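Predict both folds.
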Amino acid sequence: MSYTFEKSKAAFARAQEVIPGGVNSPVRAFKAVGEAPVFVKHGEGAHITDIDGQTYVDMVCSWGPLILGHRHPAVVAAIQEALEHGTTFGMPTELEIEMAALICELIPSVEMVRMVSSGTEATMSALRLARGYTGRDLIVKFEGCYHGHADHLLINAGSGAMTFGVPSSPGVPADVAKETLVAKYNDLASVRALFEEHPAEIAAVIVEPIPGNMGLIMPEEGFLEGLREITSEYGAVLIFDEVISGFRASAGGAQKVFGVMPDLTCLGKIIGGGLPVGAFGGKREIMAHLSPSGPVYQAGTLSGNPLAMSAGFAALSVLKNEQPYDALAAKGAALADGLRALAEKHGVAVTVNQFGSLLTVFFTDRPVHCYADATTSDTAKFATFFSTMLANGVHLPPSQFECWFLSTAHSQEDLDKVLAAADLAFAEVSKL
């Protein structure tokens, strides 16, 4: 029985009167899939329930933070206990120390860490710190990698991978965009060419070690190691944006999986236990340049918020103690294999990229190793696939170019439901 969305449609109509586009983050509008968004009322474990009273297997998990599922008992208890003491103080708490110490213990390269309130804040602040530390202005990012919505990060590659960036959003000044150089992911030659052209001007290279915002893409062998070598050679800061991969790839992030140590690491999502949070940290020598120890300014009224610290500490403690990563990877591999088999059954060309609890189904017949590969995906086929999945009780990211997220709460029954819905969805796609 297909789902209906009358109450969600009515809510969306009301929302558009008072919220730009009806949502507070663009992808939530479902525009890429030609649907109206589902409005959620409740979450429990691996499931969400909408305001029409319909329940879905949730493969978004709030875009990654909910690796333990919705309303995990340890996280809920921690928030409730913290709430008894207050919501915010604008003053230090001991919990901030405990949280910072736990992150330093688990993330191999982090010796000191500063808490902020979002992933965008983390990347923005890490780049400011890198510029202040090196005395240089230029930064290198990669085509298709998303690092938040700060002006100098909303940059496209233009006509080639080795060019000055151009703004990808109105409101981003061209002069700001010129400070950002764009390279091709998994292409060390494009990175080295930029450094050869600007040997003493590049402050930092920022990269998702496991990109998740052009769909899931894996680093090829030697790529991250090569970035480490090049940045060290030229005296630039290597920044890993582990907002997605931090505590999802492993308890030590992607850097522990691949054995490559950045100078700075940006974190978010999971470290808040479902509440808004971000962090950046790294070498003591670099972090010492941050105010009030050093001259590079950064501040935030709600940084180190006690509710977020409590939720995050509880979530990280569960991950540290239970180490669920092998089990999550087994779920992810089984789901990916099942999806490939169903696509083949219905004669639909797909590439399924999967790592641990992350996966993306690309509607393309070619391997996906970079942004250009990802853009060969048939977004119309994805839209049909998405709509059929939604109507059959599975909530996917409403964009071809995003990751599916698994949690420890997903059961075999949940995965079976996802595959049963996918069987119907691939059948619909095969008709296009």
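Second protein follows, with its predicted structure tokens after the sequence.
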Amino acid sequence: MRTHWVGSVFKVLFWLLLASVLVGLVTGQLAWALVVGLSIYLGWHLHQMIRFLQWLGTRRNEAPPDAHGMWGEIFDRIYQMQRRDSRMRAKQQLVIDRIQASTAALSDAVVMIDAKGRLEWWNHAAERLLGLRSPDDSGQHVTNLLRDPKFVEYFEANQFREPLDIASHLNLSARLQYTITHYGQGERLMVVRDTTRLHNLEQMRKDFVANVSHELRTPLTVVVGYLETLQDSDELINPRWKRALQQMQQQSQRMQNLLNDLLMLSRLENDDRNVEQHSVDISQMLKTIAQDARALSAERRHQISLEADPGISLRGAPEELRSAFSNLVFNAVKYTSDEGEIHIRCWQDDNGAHVSVRDNGTGIAAQHISRLTERFYRVDSSRSTHTGGTGLGLAIVKHVLLRHNGRLEINSVVGEGSVFTCHFHPGRLA
């Protein structure tokens, strides 16, 4: 096709020049004849260009004007490209319309946010859950309309690994869960779900566990007291009952530990107040915990070592931090074989403060690691029976760290051991 119109151009130019030369030879004005001939040729091209611009400017959707040669080829190709582009845009618009129609039917709010944080599009559920108004709010920055300090901090941090669960600004009794995902060139897609029912059910569960644990604590204390009294009265007890009393006391102690952990976990979950801002000497706290761990190890003769940089202090609640660190250390004692090695380390760098507990125990398979902080999750159900564990230790650690702007990192290799590391933000340093 290209060869065709190129040949046509040269053919027209050839005949025009030939005619100009002949006229020039006849008239004796060869130069003027060539000038006139070329002017006619250029004028024709200028005329076609004007037609082309008029067509593109005012009659773009109409069929192209008739033309021959090169300009006919240009008109036809542009027209074909226009039709192809029109069909493509129609298909894309159809897909967009279907997506918008499907998202509009969702009960969850869907909001599209551009790279600068401005609202681009949202569905009907967003108007109901977030109070957005169309089209008045279009182009507004999202934090101008959603002004909850927790949401503003969450959005500006631009770290959306975990969803945000907060009360609705329209109805304080309702709970909303915000999930934000990056896409495109810095744009963000925000999905907001009404979690009021789930939140209420979870609160009922927390209240039930807390109340039952509290109510069981008193009668269990009475039972444990009488068991201790009976064991102290050796001369009054039939020897056949001694083993039974020992087992009852062991199981009662296990129940007490479970109730204490449940109460601790319930308090951490239900306490929405800001964490206490005491200056806690982590190095000194770990020394005390290491001594308690050696006492717990006793005849198992674990090699427990401590490496702590002096003077590391965190702002927080001393009892909560002690509970978190002691759970990690005591777990290492429980699940490390006799005469095993346990190394406790505390250090500080530009990323904040860090506390790690490393052991050379049996290790944990990779498929279990992500679920270790779940309540009552067990890698091996038989392990808790032998160790007296409650299955709540790591859940407590997780909640304590969340309240102290920290996170738990778990690394483990089966047959080699595990490393549990608590990372604290530099803002937590005292």
